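# nightly structure sweep
# worker-07 picked up a monomer target from the shared queue
# config: single-sequence mode, recycle default, output format = structure tokens
# input follows
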Amino acid sequence: MSRYQPPLTLTTKMLALVAEISEQIGQLTAMDERLQTPQLRRSNRIRTIQASLAIENNTLSIEQVTAVLAGQRVLGLPREIQEVRNAFAAYETMPDWQPSTRTDLLRAHELLMGGLIDDCGQFRRAGVGIYRGDKLVHMAPPPSRVVHLVEDLLAWLGASDWHPLIISCVFHYEFEFIHPFVDGNGRMGRLWQTLILSQWRPVLAYLPVEAVIREQQDDYYAALSAADQLAESTPFVEFMLQALSLALAEATRSEPVTDPVTDPVTDQVAKVLWALHGGNSLKVNELMAEVGLTHKANFRANYLRPALVANLIEMTEPNSPNSPAQRYRLTRLGKASVPPGSA
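# output follows
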């Protein structure tokens, strides 16, 4: 087993932030039943995806990302739309992964980058430099060292007894330093930090810290650069802990979502869920018949779309929203949300 220990200087700022974040997590957990409704969790997941991709120059807005995930047509670059679909699939699969497992790391990259690059799910086999404009800000280790460095980092991750908050930030920096993939390293590092944190405190799986990073993107890159120059992750760890604290402060100030258009517990949505219970997959006209409606526009606006946006149902043909063969079925969340008795 590797005895690698990532270089880090523990500072009083880190200790203060760890204490502050732990208190904030306690507050959020206490509020979780009231605030962390399915629609708010989905909203935060969408914010996470949009912000993480925006850091990588994806131009789709929150509204466009929401529409993509609802199976609606969006005017945008095919690559950017694919990035959204991939990211959502990766974050939804996240609970199935173990952070220190190499196969899960590669599988996550394959999901994130599938259809975007040829080498998805594979470590890079060429040298790579990170540029900001025309300036080289980081030359990643040579490809011959990538597998060894990643194995050392994962072994440390699996064995470390450091505080999970510190571990997640250190891993994020070390991963970016290694830059193990041809592309997608930034979004992978942020995804994997979320995975590490969510296994420590499940409520953190839906914390949109990426939105804070997006707002402070220059500082994010400056912290990475400062850590490179110092040859240890200390500046980056301090930055990420501060970002986590800001994201938690926002989360504990949030109000419950009650928008009737997106509230998945409306009577209309409940009828859709009931019609699809038991593993049914139905076409629009079949669903309308089940809920007793004949006006298609009303059905789509008040029944179908809210259920899609809340991730309670999904299309069987998501890449062809208007396909004649299109049917709708319950998602995992939808199956758990079917109301008891007849709707």
